[in-house]
Amino acid sequence: MKKSKTILKDERFALTIERLCHQLIEKYDNFENTCLIGIQEGGVFMGDRIYSRLLAILGLEKLDYGKLDITFYRDDFRTRTKPLKASSTEMDFLIEGKQVILMDDVLYTGRSVHAAMTALQHYGRPENIELMVMVDRRFNRHFPIQCDYVGMTIDALDEAYVKVEWADNGKDKIRLIA
């Protein structure tokens, strides 16, 4: 049986989201020419939370926010033993010349982020792309990818699994399963 340890929850989780939002505000001010994009599926949960908090903090009605499916851009999609289930991509804007903030829940090998950057090319050529993650597992990269905004860094064995659980009732948590 695998053991599970909660690393971050409730108030500290909410504080981490708040800190990430304020880091974005500090750099992007009114988010002119900037868009947020969550990677399906875990990055969309984070993106939804960051997007709604930014709207509330800034008193805005809308920011450019998209949800990007990377299923068929992954380098391992043909090697899976069972068929993959694609999610929908929801982006009603082009990223041409924009500042893109790409979001995911956990940065592990970097393969998902690599696939996301490839998929983004169908929506234009951004001015730049920055990466925001809730958890950075920094010693396990397969690609030279690093985060610009990090909720927390976890050093864990390769066999361990980091799970970010997003709840609508504020009972969010991050667990390490070994």
Structural description of this entry:
With 178 residues, the protein is an alpha/beta fold. It has a single domain, classed as Rossmann fold (3-Layer(aba) Sandwich). It contains 3 helices and 8 strands. The strands form 2 sheets. Strands 3-2-4-5-6 form a 5-stranded parallel sheet, with helices on both faces. The chain has a 3-stranded antiparallel sheet with strand order 1-8-7. The protein is globular. The termini are close together.
Largest sheet: 5 strands, parallel
**Number of separate strands:** 8
Mean pLDDT: 91
Query: Spatial order of the strands in the main sheet?
Result: 3-2-4-5-6
Fraction in helix: 25-40%
Q: Can you tell me the residue ranges where pLDDT is under 50 for at least 5 consecutive residues?
A: none
Specify the CATH class.
Alpha Beta
SSE ordering: EHEHEEHEEEE
**Domain tally:** 1
What share of the residues does DSSP label as strand, in percent?
Answer: 25-35%
The CATH topology turns out to be: Rossmann fold
Number of separate helices: 3
Describe the SSE topology:
Blueprint: E1 4-9, H1 10-28, E2 34-39, H2 42-58, E3 64-68, E4 99-107, H3 111-120, E5 128-136, E6 149-153, E7 161-165, E8 173-177
Parallel strand pairs: 2-3, 2-4, 4-5, 5-6
Antiparallel strand pairs: 1-8, 7-8
Helix pairs in contact: 1-2
Task: Give a short synopsis of this structure.
The protein is 26% helix and 28% strand. The chain has helices at 10-28, 42-58, 111-120; strands spanning 4-9, 34-39, 64-68, 99-107, 128-136, 149-153, 161-165, 173-177. A five-stranded parallel β-sheet has the order 3-2-4-5-6, with helices on both faces. The protein has a three-stranded antiparallel β-sheet with strand order 1-8-7.
